[in-house]
């Protein structure tokens, strides 16, 4: 089989690694890929939907997997399907569940998905008046895609006013901030659940716990994710049953009633509070770095799972009774300003699984090219075993100004 994987991060490296592990004969293409994906297949420099569609037609690609939310929102699935090409992911209408927070919240409200109370505004004065009388903290979200930076937890009225001014008046997110969603702040712990949708049913993966903040003890700025553990040690069977009843089943009902039929991934970002399990957001593709922690525990052949979804067949997911800990190594200064181009040394001494998140090959060396650089994943019979494996191997990896949290997976 010929497989095209679109994206250039740790998620795409992990998807390619799992597919190649299960199907050594598969031919993999990545666009754009990175230094890690280059060890599994061929990296391409295709950027537009038309370029990707043309390549898939000409090369007779059997299946395309999309990591980029922007391309999904722009309709890459619609383009591929018009040309008779197999692709995993939501069409443009369903991708709005990630592409527009207003659309997603209205969908949740309409179909009884348990979520925080909210209001939508496109006018600074009205939004400011509402926020002024609101209980704090509160959450302000830019409606559209904002590279993961469009959600702000405001501790007081001053911060809320500044955030609304930045988004609605100064337009720091451009058209993505034409509307804002203001919602109540939920107190609790987060959990992530990836799932596969076959157009008829949703099949959830095991839970995962993301560590979003740059600093240890969940302090400092938000990032794209500093590490993940799977399964989430705080997410109980009772939580899972509540998730199915209050979130998964109403979501499935809504997808069917809105005729949003597709084969692809639905990522549920959850908040577990004393009042139950709430949905924070949908993502319509594999999470990053959740994918890197979850896939090493999946017993199934990933290609077979995807093909079952494409054919509308039931899917029975089978998991290792183990734990994984994924630690993210970043460039110093991330998530703000950071330098690139530093050689990564010692990867040949890492015995556990690792995925490149932001590095490229240059003059026969692997050098940093992004903020999140490398994912090191330990798998063990216990959470503590998995932590030890990951952190012991991290000692072998070095690049200038590297940074990582030492508390991923601590309970």
From TrEMBL:
<dbReference type="Pfam" id="PF01071">
    <property type="entry name" value="GARS_A"/>
</dbReference>
<dbReference type="GO" id="GO:0006189">
    <property type="term" value="P:'de novo' IMP biosynthetic process"/>
</dbReference>
<protein>
    <recommendedName>
        <fullName>Phosphoribosylamine--glycine ligase</fullName>
        <ecNumber>6.3.4.13</ecNumber>
    </recommendedName>
</protein>
<keyword id="KW-0658">Purine biosynthesis</keyword>
<dbReference type="InterPro" id="IPR016185">
    <property type="entry name" value="PreATP-grasp_dom_sf"/>
</dbReference>
<dbReference type="Pfam" id="PF02843">
    <property type="entry name" value="GARS_C"/>
</dbReference>
<keyword id="KW-0067">ATP-binding</keyword>
<dbReference type="Pfam" id="PF02844">
    <property type="entry name" value="GARS_N"/>
</dbReference>
<dbReference type="InterPro" id="IPR011054">
    <property type="entry name" value="Rudment_hybrid_motif"/>
</dbReference>
<feature type="domain" description="ATP-grasp">
    <location>
        <begin position="105"/>
        <end position="311"/>
    </location>
</feature>
<dbReference type="GO" id="GO:0009113">
    <property type="term" value="P:purine nucleobase biosynthetic process"/>
</dbReference>
<keyword id="KW-0436">Ligase</keyword>
<dbReference type="GO" id="GO:0004637">
    <property type="term" value="F:phosphoribosylamine-glycine ligase activity"/>
</dbReference>
<dbReference type="InterPro" id="IPR020561">
    <property type="entry name" value="PRibGlycinamid_synth_ATP-grasp"/>
</dbReference>
<dbReference type="InterPro" id="IPR011761">
    <property type="entry name" value="ATP-grasp"/>
</dbReference>
<dbReference type="InterPro" id="IPR013815">
    <property type="entry name" value="ATP_grasp_subdomain_1"/>
</dbReference>
<dbReference type="InterPro" id="IPR000115">
    <property type="entry name" value="PRibGlycinamide_synth"/>
</dbReference>
<keyword id="KW-0547">Nucleotide-binding</keyword>
<dbReference type="GO" id="GO:0046872">
    <property type="term" value="F:metal ion binding"/>
</dbReference>
<dbReference type="InterPro" id="IPR037123">
    <property type="entry name" value="PRibGlycinamide_synth_C_sf"/>
</dbReference>
<comment type="pathway">
    <text>Purine metabolism; IMP biosynthesis via de novo pathway; N(1)-(5-phospho-D-ribosyl)glycinamide from 5-phospho-alpha-D-ribose 1-diphosphate: step 2/2.</text>
</comment>
<dbReference type="InterPro" id="IPR020562">
    <property type="entry name" value="PRibGlycinamide_synth_N"/>
</dbReference>
<dbReference type="GO" id="GO:0005524">
    <property type="term" value="F:ATP binding"/>
</dbReference>
<dbReference type="InterPro" id="IPR020560">
    <property type="entry name" value="PRibGlycinamide_synth_C-dom"/>
</dbReference>
<comment type="similarity">
    <text>Belongs to the GARS family.</text>
</comment>
